[in-house]
Structures are given as C-alpha cells and as structure tokens.
Amino acid sequence: MGAVPDTAGSVGPDWKKSSLSAHNGNCVEVAQLRSGDYGVRDSKDVALGCPVLTFSRAEWRYFLEGVKAGEFDLP
Fold first, then answer.
1. CA of 46: how far to CAs of 22, 30, 71, 72, in Å?
2. DSSP letter at 61?
C-alpha cells in the first residue's frame, strides 16, 4: 500500500467512483496512476498520504476479467 497524491488538475490521479455506488460514503475510488498502475482507495479517506492499494496493469486486468466472469459473485 502506498500514498498517492490527490492534487487538482493534471498533476494527480483522476479518481473515479462508480455512478452506481450508494451515496452513503461506503465506496471505493479507482484511478490510473502515472506509473500505469491502478490505485484503489476508500472514498472517505482521501487526504494526502492516506492509504492506496496499488495494482499492476496485469493484476488489474485479471481482476476485471474475474469480475466479468462472475468469479466474485455471492452465492
């Protein structure tokens, strides 16, 4: 886990939250980082230096393929 700066403009990551997420503050945000990796963070914990899970492009691709294939669906 690393800290990724969240600054305005083109300097920092462009964090995205699903349009389908509830507006109750229990969401995660995703951004492609300058390194090409992907970051995931808690939408309530966005201050500079807060934890960010980072995934390589390959890890992110495998995760998305698993989601699309239903690997993480609840029974």
1. 17, 12, 29, 26
2. H
* pLDDT (tens digit per residue) in 14-72: 999 887 777 777 788 999 999 999 999 988 887 778 889 999 999 999 999 999 999 99
DSSP helix/strand/coil, 55: strand
Tracing tokens 């403009």 back to the chain, one arrives at 9
H or E stretch at 59: helix 57-68
CA distances from 54 to 38, 39, 74 (A): 6, 5, 25
User: Edge-to-edge strands of the sheet including 51-55?
Assistant: 2-3, 51-55, 38-42, 28-32
Give the rounded distance of the alpha carbon of 54 from its chain centre.
8
| Cα 71–chain centre separation | 19
pTM for this predicted structure: 0.71
Tell me how long the chain is: 75
